[in-house]
Amino acid sequence: MLGFAVRRIALALAVALAVSAASFILLRLSGDVATAIAGEGARAEDIAFVRKAYGLDRPLVVQYAEWLSNTLRGDFGTSLYFKTEVIGLVADKLPVTLVLGLASILFALAVSLPLGILAALHPNTWIDRLCLALAVLGQALPNFFFALCLILLFSITLRWLPVSGTGTWQHFVMPTLALGYYVAPAFMRLVRAGMIETLAADYVRTARASGLSPASVVFKHALRNALIPVVALAAVQLGFLLGGSIVVETIFALDGLGYLAYQSITYKDFPTTQAVVLLLSVVYIFLTLAADLVNAWLDPRLRVA
Amino acid sequence: MSALLSVEGLTVDLAVPAGTLHAVRDVSFEVARGETLCVVGESGCGKSMTALALMGLLPRNARRRARRLVFDGVDLAAASPARTNALRGAKLSMIFQEPMTALNPAYTIGNQLCEVYRRHKGGSRAAARERAAFLLGKVGIAAAGERLGQYPHQLSGGLRQRVMIAMALMCGPSLIVADEPTTALDVTIQAQILKLLKDLQAEFGMALVLITHDLGVVARIADRVAVMYAGEVVERGTAAQVFAAPRHPYTAGLIDCIPVPGRTKPGERLGAIPGTVPALVGTIEGCAFRQRCAFAQPACASAPPVHADAGHEWACVRGAA
Predict the structure, then answer these.
(1) In Å, how far is A8's CA from the nearest CA of chain B?
(2) Shared domain check, A127 and A59
């Protein structure tokens, strides 16, 4: 298991390096940095001056090496739009996004695991159909619409929760519900399908034939083997929640990473965009790594690669 | 002395899209303590369903009925699911056909063996582990202590079946139901596993219900034999009675299919039973075997009478020869 972990971590670092290079080059292809810095209506001489002053006329490889070495030392440069250190900007927004993402995924799992298991234990009964109906509703509702419904109910009508902002934990309740319910159906379906399969497996029949308790049969013997695809999906969904929750962040005025990414792209703020892209890709790589390690722990047969 | 397991009029119906499949029809047999009953028949004759019905492990779409289903003084037909569950793995164990998939891939051998023991007998982890190591030794696995820490995928099929046998023995059962325990194994391993079962039975004294399609296995291990055809027991008796004087044409046909060294000449064709097993959906009138039977006569269209001769019973219009 340890050797497996070490190999996987080394591989993850290599992937992170490759992704950083690819994102650096792609971003440079998307527009001219010197033009962006010089601002709208700048003359050709100004742009040329900026290009020289910022070292943007050097080969791309040299620029990448410089950026990488700065980045590794924690220097992400200065935001072109906000005129402050990028690292400070990101550090400001990251906790909000992190709290929201983690809370949403935990909420989604807390809902979908029990319902998925329940549905699998009673396939094609009214219990199963009810769970399915909940899942279809979650998948069909656009999350901005669901978010507005939540605001209408909990903030306007009942006046239990604040509409927007990030001041207290109450501010995170509705965004968590909106995002969590959006990702929960996929988990529920995966848990249900996995559990139906493992409950019919020979080793579960062995567990029953050995007179083990129903709880052990369902949770120890069936669930563990059904969780492997769920863990993989959870990693991808969490990455998605951290990078792509712009809509929900905007509705609830949560000043998070998604909103920062949106702003930095709109204003051609290259250093900020670069930092956010790098951060999110590293987060994705880390999550995939974590999923691999959890799955290797769940299933010993996966500990070889 | 009363039988350890007494089955009378066992019926299993399966709800299938085409209607009701009568997988097991009015099956009766008894197993005494320490003896081996072989239930033999071809694929689809209901022998596995009979085994699962005994264990209370039938699939969701199945319905079990029995006039009498008593194991070791417990009326299984009336017992609650919890009561049956407490017997399973403790006094009534089962070994399955597919050792490759019968063990949970996510847990070590030791974990799975010990869980069964601690579920029924309680006690410390150490005591369960000691019992597991002892039994792994008994089923012929070397370096038992090391094997306990291994996962199923690190073991061969033969070894996994030995582990399954050890698991069945963990709590000292009085009956083991083995459903085709050697079918999925290499021929050389088959013989070893059969011998192992026989030796363990001699040592621990449990009764064995062995489900098989292989009369060679039956000849080696059985005290008593029940021959099943189309969900019914068509002939039963001691192994000596059934092999020496098979009364039902189906049993006689099965025995003809076995090659016997010395008697079967090289190049000679082995016996074969023409036709296939009838569909079991809907009711079957008369003798189910009559379409394939060389001795079929008009009387076969009504239910065959059951003849008995010194504990040897068969259901056929033809009486003792």
Answers:
(1) 21
(2) no
Work out the number of other CB atoms within 10 angstroms of the CB of residue A123: 13
pLDDT at A50: 84
Which chain B residue's Cα is nearest to A225?
B106
Verify whether the Cβ–Cβ distance A216 to B115 is below 8 Å. yes
- Which residues in chain A touch residue B76, judged by CB atoms under 8 angstroms apart? none
* Nearest to B50, CA basis, from B317, B260, B232: B232
User: Quick check: is A81 in a domain?
Assistant: no
pLDDT in tens, B269-299: 777 777 777 777 777 888 888 888 888 888 8
CB of B208 within 8 A of CB of B197?
yes
Please tell me whether residues B66 and B181 are part of one structural domain.
yes
Report yes or no: A215 at the B interface, CB cutoff 8 Å.
no
Location of structure tokens 């083995």: B178
What does B104-173 look like in DSSP terms, one character per residue? Answer: -TTS-HHHHHHHHHHHHH---HHHHHHHHHHHHHHTT-SSHHHHHTS-GGGS-HHHHHHHHHHHHHTT--
The answer to whether residue B118 neighbours chain A at the CB level (below 8 Å) is no
Mutation target among B97, B104, B177, B180 for the A interface, most CBs of A within 10 A: B104
Q: Can you tell me the ipTM of this complex?
A: 0.89
Distance (Å) from the alpha carbon of B41 to chain A's nearest alpha carbon: 23
Residue-wise pLDDT for A136-167, tens only, equals 998 888 888 898 999 999 988 988 888 887 77
Range of the domain at A32: 2-72
- Measure CB to CB from residue B106 to each of A211, A214, A298 and give the nearest one: A298
CB–CB contact A208 B87 (8 Å): no
Residue that terminates a domain, selected from B170, B196, B216:
B170
Look at residue B320 and tell me whether its pLDDT is greater than 70: no
CB atoms A210 and B167 under 8 Å: yes
Q: Which of A150-164, B192-206, B248-262 has the lowest average pLDDT?
A: B248-262
Is the same domain home to B185 and B121?
Answer: no
Q: Is the pLDDT reported for residue B231 higher than 80?
A: yes
Instruction: Kindly provide the residue ranges of all beta strands, DSSP E only, lying in chain B, ordered along the sequence.
Output: 5-16, 19-31, 36-40, 62-65, 68-71, 74-75, 92-95, 175-179, 207-212, 224-229, 232-238, 306-309, 312-315
Q: Specify the pLDDT at position B321.
A: 53
Let me know whether A46 and A91 are in one domain: no
CA–CA separation, A271 vs A88, rounded Å? 12
Q: B190 touching A, CB under 8 A? A: no
At residue B45, the pLDDT reads 86
